[in-house]
Amino acid sequence: MELNSTWKWIVVAILFILALIFPLFADEFMVSILMQAYLWAFLAMSWDVIGGYGGQFSLGHAAFIALGAYTSTILLESYGVSPWIGMWAAGLVAGAAGALVGFASLRLRGPFFALGTIAFAELVKLLLLYFKDITGGPLGILITKSGPEYMLFESQAHYYYLMFALMVAGVLFLKWFEASRFGIGLVAIREDEEAAEGVGINVYRTKVIGAAISAFLTGIGGTIYAQWIHFIRPDIIVKLEYSTQIAAIDVVGGAGTPYGGLIGALILVPLSLYLNAIFGGMIAGLSLILYGVVLLVVVVMVPGGIYGLVRRKWLSRKRGGK
Amino acid sequence: MVEFSAYTQLLVSYAILGGVYGLTALGLSLIWGVMKAVNWAHGDFLMVGMYTAFWTVTLFGIDPYIAAIVAFILLGLLGMVTHVIAIEPVVEKPGGHEATLLTTLGISVILESLALILWSPSPRSFQNVYKSTYIEVFGIRTSVAEAIAFVVSIVAIVAVDQFLKRVRIGKAIRAVSQNPVGARVVGIDVPKIRLMTFGLGVALAGMAGVLVATFYPNIRPLAGYVWDIASYVVVIFAGLGTIYGVIFAGIIIGVTEGLGTIVFSNAFRQILVYVVFLAVLLLRPQGLFGKALRRV
């Protein structure tokens, strides 16, 4: 057991170092792909708080990306506030909206909750379009500033390290979260709400705060995303496609685990970006089809996701079983 | 007074559209009622129906209402294939409802991507006499295509209701919907009934797609999405599993969209729909016409 855990740490350390030196030997395209995988991993992990641990299947997380991205970008372009500070405001705005969704989750179960979150995201998109004095409406906002003090970098490698740090922070957070009193409470509610209430867990507070935490993290991810693409517009950012991808990545990787989001993103994001790069604009939709097929296959064949499968195999071997 | 009649015209047009929403929602409602599964790919089946209309009309020059029959059969088969792949393997497992949510989401993504690959993202439409001919009743003008779509929607909803009440298979479908275990005990082949229900639900979506395509000028791979949202709104509004409810809910939603157009502007007419939708979801999740659901 001791040996096992030592080996685990050695493997983690090697992977960590490999990831750190990756931009030194890989070309720009590869760096960009892995960077995007980290970003999606972080978004999927943020979703995981409410979607995986909380068991509330949200299909509206693109709204939180948008709220985060718009908050920090408006602060940056209209008031000159650096996104290093603005990202926290972004998290708070998205988190407040997340709390509203949390209130909704007290009444809505399963598909109803998913439907409500879709409607919520659509509403956010329409409102972003409607209040064009603040948001630029359908034209969106272009980020015109530059320099690292505004979280804007010249090379993809810088963004790579930014996203890497984000992803690592996400994994560490989920590791801490799932062992925390609050995280355990959230899982207990997912498994059996009445029993959880019976042992003294405040269901009302736990669900609302859980949704707020998930949205808070997603909002920060939204800031980082905006800083990377330099341009935000309601129709390119509040897409059901994004909400779906976030959920699909997490479910494929293994929902309700600290590594599910990362595993899902490391598999799905590079695959879809490669497909895109190979077939490019010639065949639209080819990269997306992958999400559909993988999601379908994983849910039917390997419930629990890839991490769940690997862990089951690992445990049964350790026990000397089949 | 001029303004008033313009508003009336607008609201009636949206009420007609709402009637069609009723039909687009029917299949969704049926599938929910029987297997408690939400079909996320519903709007995409509608989209496939729209393309069926486009291709049969432009390639073979046949009447779009014959295309509706073609789409009904074609989509019925597609629905049954989907059921075998994505619903039946998971529906009875623990956590089956969440699983069907995910698998139909997968189907939805696959259908949209396939449509993008096969037919490109550019919107299409086809000319037909029904779209360009207008009729006028009590000073309200509407295209024949929309009038027919409205009438066919109502007829289809009544027909499905009668089918469920009078035909043997229809009765079996209702039995499974009310009590799957009891249905099995009295010798009903529950998996077969589920298969047929899913096929019927998707076939109805395909037919609705054709009717929509006769007047809706925007046939494209993601077109289902707009109708998807409308269908979900109608189903929730009506109360899941009710049949006649969808007509009234559809018309109410249509009129709400019309009011949204008056209050906001055409591009933002849906703001009101979403607000009403979220309000209904939160305040009366069993819908306006549905019985109180046990919380799932």
Q: What does this molecule look like?
A:
- The complex is a heterodimer of chains A (322) and B (296).
- Chain A has 322 residues and is mainly alpha-helical.
- Chain A has helices spanning 2-25, 28-53, 61-79, 83-107, 110-130, 132-135, 156-179, 181-191, 193-198, 203-229, 234-237, 240-253, 260-279, 286-301, 305-318, and strands spanning 141-142, 231-232.
- In chain A, strands 1-2 form a two-stranded antiparallel ribbon.
- The model of chain A has no long low-confidence stretch (mean pLDDT 88).
- Chain B is mainly α.
- Chain B starts with a helix and ends in a 13-residue tail after the last helix.
- Chain B is globular.
- Chain B contains twelve helices and two strands, in the order αααααββααααααα.
- Chain B has helices spanning 2-35, 42-60, 64-91, 96-119, 129-132, 144-166, 168-178, 180-185, 190-215, 223-238, 245-263, 270-283, and strands at residues 134-137, 140-143.
- In chain B, a hairpin with a 2-residue loop joins strand 1 and strand 2.
- The interface between A and B is large, with 40 and 47 residues.
Keyword list:
heterodimer, A: 322 residues, mainly alpha, two-stranded antiparallel ribbon, 15 helices, B: 296 residues, ABC transporter involved in vitamin B12 uptake, BtuC, 12 helices, 76% helix, disordered C terminus
How would you classify the quaternary structure?
heterodimer
Instruction: Kindly identify the CATH topology of chain B.
Output: ABC transporter involved in vitamin B12 uptake, BtuC
Averaged pLDDT of chain A, please?
Answer: 88
Question: Structural class given helices, strands, pairing of chain A?
Answer: mainly alpha
Strand order of the largest sheet of chain A: 1-2
